[in-house]
User: Fold this.
Amino acid sequence: MERQDALARLGHARVARMATVGPNGRPHAVPFVFALDGTTVYWTVDRKPKRSEHLARLEHIRANPHVELVADHYEEEWSMLWWVRAAGTARTLDQGPERDRALDLLATKYPQYRGQLPAGPVVAIDLSHWSGWSAQAAPTPPV
Assistant:
């Protein structure tokens, strides 16, 4: 899959799965919502219920900022299948214009964030490489 097609599909995806690595060396994968700006993925800790305020994914990123993510599209009609996998380095944004822009991008993509922006940390993932596959060479992703 070409770079532009992979990034377009990733940017249109509503949810992806992100893997971090814990101190025990084991992968830890979670679904997450995000916004893509160029080759940077942004996500935030929002108000959805969590089991703990101390999220393993944030602790893992502090210890090892290398992450991978995958977004995909599934239909029973297998000619419509695709996936994009990307890897990069994560960093936490506690304040500043990049954090503000990330929250604006997230609120544009997800109506749930429009009424009240999340107050939790924002994480930026600077993508360094990506790959993808599609059953069809569609120039734009299915919506």
